[in-house]
Amino acid sequence: MTERRYVDTLLRMAKSASSTELEVQELLASKSAKVAALLKENSNANLYYLLHDIPADSETFDLVARFCHGCAVQMSTENIVPLICLSFYLGMDENHCNNNLLSKAVTFFEQTVLPSWNEIIKALRSSEKSLQQTMQTGLFDACLQAMIAKASDNPRHLGEPIVVSTDKVDDSDRPNAKRRLFALDWQEDLTTLSLQLYEPIIYTMKQHEIPPTYISASIYRYAKKWIFHCNNGRETMSIYKRKSQRNVIETLEKLLPHGRELLPCTLLFEMLRCAINLEASSVCRNGFEIRIGKQLDQAKVKDLLILPQGYAKEMQYDIECIRRILKVFYSNYDSSDASGFITVAELMEEFLAEIACDMDLMIDSFISLAEMSMAAALGTKRNSDGIYRAIDIYFEKHAYLTEKEKEQVCKVLDFQKMSPEACEHAAKNERLPVRAVVQVLFMAQLQMRETLARTAYDDEKSEKEEKEEDEVRMEMEKMSIKVKELERDCREMKQEITNGCIRERVNKGKVSLWSEMKRKFGCMTSMGDFHCPAKKKKEHPKCGIHHNS
Fold first, then answer.
1. For 382-437, what is each residue's pLDDT tens digit?
2. Which of 293, 274, 269, 265 is nearest to 230 (CA)?
3. What is the spatial distance between Cα 7 and Cα 187, in angstroms, rounded to a whole number?
4. Which residues contact 313 (CB under 8 A, 6 or more apart)?
5. 3-state secondary structure of 419
6. CA 247 from chain center: how many Å?
7. How many CB atoms lie within 10 A of CB 333?
8. pLDDT tens-digit profile of 495-509?
9. Residue 232 pLDDT > 70, yes or no?
10. At what angle are helices 319-332 and 363-377 packed, to 10 degrees?
11. Which chain positions lie within coiled-coil regions (predicted)?
């Protein structure tokens, strides 16, 4: 009966001012166009009837009553939005009365609230009870536009982004040194708003291209505040609260931007696990699975320990969920670097070894996960030692398995890809079924034959290479001898030139080294040919030159 409290407030103030109820009605009608119109239609109507549908609380009623009686109204960020909504509803504008309440409240709102991010958040938080009126009056749109402008200039108004780290320590949601340094610069958090306000704000920020890293971080912190900290288990949660939290996680999934490394993989797994526990829609769960699959190479073993919708012991690991995530990873991996494939293969092997210790893990579940691990290792040139190790752990923790069941498990293992060390261990492993040991021994024998054949081939190849090296060495020695002979000849020739020994030795019947060299090069003309009397040219008679007889 909020309208009765409001009327009681008016009557109490009227009594203190020695005013009658009629005078109170006239006073209110002088400020409110709505009350004036109602009284004009029915002058005998009482205040309880006139004010039965006013959307406001008692504190806001008090402010309006004080204004109507000429008292000062103490406006603040916390009461300004409800005050504007009520004065708008009552028609307390300038068209009805000068210096009316609505214009004063709007002026305070524009000058005090809109310029400040913190004041906007506080004002919106105070509008939860009059949310519909806040939307209708345009107050929410005014706040939203102011917030978009401020977030565009400084997206840190949404909070610091959560850095994706490759460290082993899970410090993804921990503030860094810079954030701790400026921790005193406190500001109102957007995540304190209700989902009805938070959803349109984030949606509009996405449309205005606010950096998705800041939006994603804000969405995760909202889930952490409104779901993770409030979720104490499905058994103790009321139906209303469970439905409310399911609505929150489904809405946040729609708002969460798509993209790799916007949030650490561990946090995405946390949100997926929450969606599963709250029995969110398949669209919501698939959305988280797709985001996880795109960056599965950043996941940790503990992330894969996802509880399914049922808590039955035979279903303690959501195998189909893991299968879908793996499918997303392989269908979206577009890097030329194969390190991502190797990382996921190692992740699956470690996960298989981890769950192999679970005493309640059913054999069918283990085989399915082992097959996924083998499929993840395809194309990575990895051996099967990790799978063998997980199988050995499973046999050790489940000693009650029959020989036939063990053989069924070992069908997953590729003995050809086991290292010699693993084969040696398996050959002596009493936990393995006999058929598996025989296969291991057979593979060990094949490996030994291949090793011997490779050794023989290497020995034959070594002998051939040594023979070729000897032949090359002999040829080089021959060439070295020839080079030495040429060097000796060159030294002798140089010595003859230096001592002036190059001369004609025709009369002595001797042939010099120089002549010998010319003969070798086919150059037989010598300087003596130009001095031979028998070979002189005859003089031409017309030139007066006599010929030698």
1. 899 999 999 999 999 999 999 999 999 999 998 888 888 998 899 899 999 999 88
2. 274
3. 39
4. 360
5. coil
6. 25
7. 16
8. 766 666 555 454 444
9. no
10. 10
11. 457-496
